[in-house]
Amino acid sequence: MPDAIAHYKILDRIGTSALGEVYRTRDTKLGRSVALTILPPSLVGDRERLNGVLCAARLASTLSHPNIAALFEVGEDGPRRYLASEFVPGDPLSTKIPGQPLDVRRAVDFAIQLADALAEGEARGISHGDIRAETIIITSKDRPKLGHFGLSGIATDGQVPHRASGAEDEATSDRQGALNDIRALGWVMHEMLTGRAARRTGAASPRAINAAVPSELDAIVRRSVSTDPATGYQTAATLGAELRAFAAILDARAAAARDAGKQPETRSRRGSAVTALVGLAALLGLAIWIWHVVCPLCRG
Hints:
The chain is globular and about 70 Å long. The protein has 2 domains: 4-86, CATH 3.30.200.20; 90-252, Transferase(Phosphotransferase) domain 1 (Transferase(Phosphotransferase), domain 1, Orthogonal Bundle), CATH 1.10.510.10. The model is unreliable at 156-167, 277-282 and 296-300 (pLDDT under 50). It has 300 residues and is an alpha+beta fold. A hairpin with a 4-residue loop joins strand 3 (20-27) and strand 4. The chain contains 7 helices and 9 strands, in the order ββββααβββαββαααα. Helix 3 (104-123) packs antiparallel against helix 5 (167-194) and helix 6 runs antiparallel to helix 7 (236-299).
């Protein structure tokens, strides 16, 4: 690997993704850190597959959302093809939950943000294709981010992105991808709430594993992973809205608990204040009695 590709100075290797080798680089034109994904020669040499990936990448570059790593450029430098994306420092979600569930409120907050990101993709007919705890990065500001949006599924199955010739077939394909993303997020929620790697099969109730999971949230997770069109969520926006409604319920319960905890303390403080006032009144009365009764006797 050379010291630079196009105007990106290579700093170090991040790792390998489904799309190829990923490097942390410095954009010498704009002075920012960039994640540069170098497409493998096997993909570059396959004209049909390469065109499909590049087409999907250009579409993905139109996404703009705080929970989606932005794709800045689809470029080439000599024989190399690359994708220049936002560099997201942080750790995979999978490292935050090994054997221990997240706090319920934190898990719900993550899920809301991820559902919003999927809704942004839905609005443009783009699905992520590889939603897992390992592919979600938690930033230093505790914000989840998705990378390679619209590209991960393409590279994972090694297929050219299917853009059917008919508008109806294309819409069906996009719709199925969106539903798959919703179910995948449901299993990520299950993992966050249980601390166990999601098998994506079998029992879907996190409450059965972690009794601290509220029943309302348990129902949302089970509905998220459902494959039944009659019960499962049909849009990420709907899932996000229900998660927000539940978050409001959680916050109201927490506020009520705080108020309940403060009541005995408030009563105690009021009691102490009353006692102090009674004491002061007694002292004042004693001083007045001494002044008017005892002092004249002493003077007489």
